[in-house]
Design a protein that fits this description.
Elements lengths: L1 E6 L2 E5 L2 E4 H24 L7 H25 L1 H6 L14 H18 L4 H26 L6 E2 L16 E2 L2 E3 L2 H23 L5 H20 L5 E2 L2 E2 H17 L2 H5 L7 E4 L6 E2 L1 H15 L7 H6 L5 H8 L5 H19 L1 E2 L3 H10 L4 E4 L4 H11 L7 E3 L12 H10 L6 E5 L2 H10 L2 E5 L6 H5 L5 E3 L4 H7 L10
Parallel strand pairs: 9-12, 9-14, 12-13, 14-15, 15-16
Antiparallel strand pairs: 1-2, 2-3, 4-6, 5-6, 7-8, 10-11
Helix pairs in contact: 1-2, 1-5, 2-4, 4-5, 5-6, 5-7, 6-7, 7-8, 10-13, 12-13
């Protein structure tokens, strides 16, 4: 038999099992924070992959509740719980301390991010401000349980706008100040300030997380000062002591202390497209295409616009567009046969390519090539034009299942080499390259080696457009993060 609201504290009873309002409100708050966090992490693109946020949510929720319960037991009556350890498990009888949940959740999130090779600060910026929403909703569980109240007040205190709180704030025939409500409102205000003001002015990773620590520590310190049901460490209110620690963390974080000690910037991973970016292979791309147009279509259809379009994308994609009725595998064989005969005399490195790659190698950057050409062909051309040995790894189209602009090739080369996957620069000459970098979440540089592509590249997702590879040196020396949204 199902009964709705059989008592003040029970939300739903099913076959004798009570589901309490406190649990429902905590879960609702957590789910709403999860939705907000997922949206924010989706904007980071390269983080929320393979159910990252879903797994993180489950770990943080579980360990956060455990941490909140242990914190309560530790600072409420540790002697009682040591004598009756089974009662530690009786969460349904009440007793969760949010500070313990925050501490446990942050530790678990840090460990999880380290294991997944993901920037903890970026994740913290996306998640912690949303925790304020969960806390704001969860505080109403205290209302149901008649907890988190302040000093005694007169009945007339609730004659104004707080009339709707009156019934539950009457405890034992006396009325008490609704500290839970003040904290709930404070959390919502903090959430709005961080999301809509601090987010626009923050200039480094972690600032939104530090904003959370500073704001919640500030709010909770003063709320706790008026509570009459606090946890104590000796004569000191534990929540106030912890709140001071949170405020110190927030201030030190804003001042950059943790950046200097623990979160030093890593050099970005630098990934280059090959054709039209490092190697001027225009002639050996155009000539085979021209021969195929002569044979299977009309040579006059192979105008300047089409010639510009075919440089960069995968052969199979272009053949599907321009020769839809032909066997793509046969066309690829013919194309490569023609190209192979003319490579030696028709390809060269772009100006500054060798100098830039040598500089990157000397300064310790991880450098890779991600190309729509097959790997063997890339290595062959690199030897011809004198770039062999200047990059750490090469990924060609034959090493992935999805073509650009899908970012699989970026994920693959970074995962294989365990490179920095948070700060990534992608340099390419086509919209496919730019969109590939954008879809990953990389800082994307459009190299304009073809004037016909200039307008489209300037209107693309590229963070920067350059006309010479040497401009990359100045970009690398700039004090910024290398993600598409710069954070």
């Amino acid at each position: 038999m199902i009964k709705f609201f059989p008592s003040d504290k029970v939300f739903l009873s099913i076959l004798g099992l009570d589901i309490r309002w406190y649990a429902v409100l905590i879960l609702c708050g957590a789910l709403l924070a999860f939705c907000f966090s997922k949206k924010d992490l989706d904007e980071c693109k390269n983080i929320n992959k393979n159910d990252f946020i879903s797994d993180l949510f489950l770990y943080v929720l579980w360990f956060g509740i455990c941490g909140a319960r242990l914190w309560y037991c530790l600072f409420s009556d540790i002697g009682y719980y040591l004598a009756n350890p089974i009662n530690i498990l009786k969460v349904y009888d009440g007793g969760l301390a949010i500070h313990g949940g925050v501490v446990a959740g942050v530790i678990v999130a840090y460990i999880y991010c380290k294991r997944k090779n993901v920037s903890f600060l970026r994740v913290a910026d996306c998640v912690l401000p949303n925790v304020l929403v969960a806390q704001a909703i969860g505080r109403w569980g205290n209302y149901v349980n008649q907890e988190c109240h302040g000093l005694e007040v007169s009945e007339s205190f609730y004659d104004g706008i707080l009339f709707f709180l009156k019934e539950k704030m009457c405890i034992g025939g006396h009325y008490y100040e609704p500290m839970f409500f003040y904290e709930s409102v404070g959390c919502i205000i903090g959430f709005l300030l961080i999301k809509f003001i601090l987010k626009k002015t923050a200039n480094k990773r972690g600032d939104l997380a530090y904003g959370y620590f500073l704001w919640y520590g500030f709010i909770r310190f003063f709320i706790e000062g008026r509570r009459t049901d606090s946890l104590y460490l000796g004569p000191i209110k534990m929540a106030q002591l912890t709140s001071i620690a949170l405020m110190v963390i927030g201030i030190l974080g804003f001042l950059g202390v943790f950046d200097r000690l623990f979160f030093k910037k890593q050099k970005p991973t630098v990934l280059f497209d090959f054709d039209g970016t490092l190697a001027d292979t225009r002639a050996c791309i155009i000539t085979p295409y021209r021969e195929l147009f002569k044979k299977y279509a009309k040579e006059e259809d192979f105008d300047e616009q089409v010639q510009s379009e075919v440089i960069g994308p995968a052969l199979v994609d272009m053949f599907a567009k321009y020769f839809p009725n032909e066997d793509a595998n046969q066309l690829i064989e013919e194309y490569r046969s023609i190209q192979s005969k003319m490579l030696e005399g028709s390809v060269k490195a772009f100006p500054d390519a060798k100098e830039v790659l040598a500089m990157l190698k000397e300064e310790g950057y991880h450098v890779g090539i991600i190309s729509s050409r097959n790997e063997a062909s890339i290595h062959r051309i690199m030897k011809i034009i004198g770039l062999d040995g200047l990059v750490d790894d090469v990924f060609g189209i034959d090493q992935v299942t999805k073509h650009k602009p899908d970012p699989e090739i970026i994920y693959s080369i970074i995962a294989k080499n365990h490179w920095n996957g948070d700060d990534v620069i992608v340099v390419g000459d086509s919209l496919a390259d730019v969109d590939c970098g954008y879809n990953y979440g990389a800082y994307t540089i459009a190299f304009i080696s073809d004037k016909l592509k200039e307008e489209s590249l300037h209107n693309s997702h590229a963070n920067k457009c350059i006309n010479s590879l040497s401009e990359l040196k100045g970009i690398l020396k700039s004090d910024q993060y290398f993600t598409y949204n710069l954070k």
